[in-house]
Amino acid sequence: MDLCHVPAAQEKGWYLALMAPNVKGPNYAWLDPSRLYCHPQGLQDCVADLLQPFQGDPIDMVAGIDAMGFILGAAAAAVLQKGFLAIRKAGHLCVQTVAQPYTDYSGREKVMEVRTDAISPGLRILLVDQWVETGGTMRAAIELVEQLGGVVAGVAAICIEDSEGGRWIRERYKCSHCVPSRLQPRFDHHQ
């Protein structure tokens, strides 16, 4: 799809066609949304679709998960006119942090961290990431927010797969994603 083209029919998720399949192997996500982020209308519509279920909900801050969640999270924060918090992989913050170990989608053990002074008790945080595949990364972010007394106001990602971790998140938190229900099985099975 051309980076300037906008289809006449813009149903939810039309911009998913902008994503490119993985050509680098199993250590990478199976789809790359960077072309979607380059498309001005695609990015705007993606963020609007992610935020639509949260219209009217009290949200105090948006947190994006390292690293691709920073793009959608910062865009969502700008639309909501809220602050943005980066939840980072360990070792990138030069301030006091709290850490949470997790296993990412490729099975690698990692540590996520967040600054301790950004979340006060009761602060309502919308967590945003590019993709929830196994749910390990998002669950670590949830645990960090809750450990500091924050409240997870919701979880938003381009796709929340129907994995054990994805189901755990959807059962406990208000969620938003961009994949139309008729296409969800294809995304769950990486087709």
From TrEMBL:
It is an enzyme of class 2 (transferase). It holds the Pfam family Pribosyltran. Residues 57-176 form the Phosphoribosyltransferase domain. Pathway: Purine metabolism; AMP biosynthesis via salvage pathway; AMP from adenine: step 1/1. GO terms for cellular component: cytoplasm. GO terms for molecular function: adenine phosphoribosyltransferase activity. Keywords: Cytoplasm, Glycosyltransferase, Purine salvage, Transferase. GO terms for biological process: purine ribonucleoside salvage. Its main location: cytoplasm. It catalyses: AMP + diphosphate = 5-phospho-alpha-D-ribose 1-diphosphate + adenine. Its EC number is 2.4.2.7. InterPro entries: Adenine_PRTase, PRTase-like, PRTase_dom. It is found in: Cytoplasm. Signal peptide: none annotated. Homodimer. PANTHER family: ADENINE PHOSPHORIBOSYLTRANSFERASE, PHOSPHORIBOSYLTRANSFERASE DOMAIN-CONTAINING PROTEIN. Belongs to the purine/pyrimidine phosphoribosyltransferase family. This is adenine phosphoribosyltransferase. It comes from Neopipo cinnamomea. The gene is Apt1.
